[in-house]
Write a structure and sequence with these properties.
The chain is built from 14 helices and 16 strands. It is an alpha/beta fold. The strands form four sheets. The protein has a seven-stranded parallel beta sheet with strand order 10-9-11-8-7-12-13, sandwiched between helices.
Amino acid sequence: MESTAIQTEELIELAKRARKAARTLSTASREVKDRALVAIAEALRAQAAEGSPLRIANAEDIETARVAGLAAALVDRLILDEQRILDIAAAVTQIASFEDPVGEVLGMKQRPNGLSVGQVRIPLGVIAMIYEARPNVTVDAAALCLKSGNAVLLRGGKEASRSNAALGELVRNAVASAGLPADAVQIVPSGDREGIRELVRLTGMIDLVIPRGGEGLIRFVTEHARVPVIQHYKGVCHLYVDEGADLNMALRLVENGKLSRPGVCNALEGLLVHESVALAFLPRVGKLAAQGLEIRGDQATRAVLPSAKPASPEDYGQEFLAPILAVRIVGSLDEALDHIAQYGSNHTEAICTRSYERAQRFSRAVDASCVIVNASTRFNDGGELGLGAEIGISTTKLHAYGPMGLESLTAKKWIVFGEGQIR
């Protein structure tokens, strides 16, 4: 109990420093914030080559993860090679190019009594990011929070502790070089779940918690938090191949959605195929076994594709995070929609179709943070949707739905201009 009390005191101190930094950051000009972002991008590029302190720290994390037997998908998320670091730097540069959301005035109207009434965007304040495996989140979250005027506490997993520490130092130095308080970005030391429990109970000090990781982590945060939480439990993403669909296109969407990066949340997990195209299409999907794909299908699927393994009831609705695909043959769009409603996770749902009417109906009927027509599920990503980067993907509707960029990190307060009116 004593160690927990000490840890709580340390967390409170970090939060106090973040709150103080947030006050300065909330009124910082776009010029100053962009200067910090450019400095971050330049520092990343300077450490992209093999042998840099960042690459050395990351290599140590990767080796530790492999020795510990972490799944290949988790190890892949840890890797910061030269191209990934340059991609992160490019995302930061793109964020710097965006308009500053803070101070944007919305919907000013004049009331009958002469008052001018509207809203203005303001920062949320202090954001706590709790995440696993992905060191790129350290930079993405820091950059988005800086641009939107928020201070951020970054609590990564122990599997990326060296990488996160190196990135945290890089970001803090860049922020300070731009004349902003370094405490606008702070790395919270990784530890056990008790530390997370204490962090998410800091009411009045933290304004929003965003957990990114496995379903267990997110449920733990949600159950114990006393501050608002953005939830994203899992990504069970489906592709429905409609009757009359372009099967060459559909095959590309399956291959890219499932095999480009199986361990990410926008990877394809379920494939629904209209019965009229199943005989022509599924054998072509089966050939992806040469790339390591395992298909688990219902009885109708296995009648067409004997190489498929029997799907258990648990396979539908499962986030495999591996080259495994749950397949089902359906008789109609309605049946596909019913399946998605039962097994989807409000993340990403896609349809491959030549029918404008069915595309429109699918888009309206499916409840997901991103609905995609004739493109890969992998496009539900902040960078791909033009946000520069994302701080997370919300699968709940308060206060954001889908990838969260700059605007999602702001609130709106009312402003009223008068000339002496009284009520």
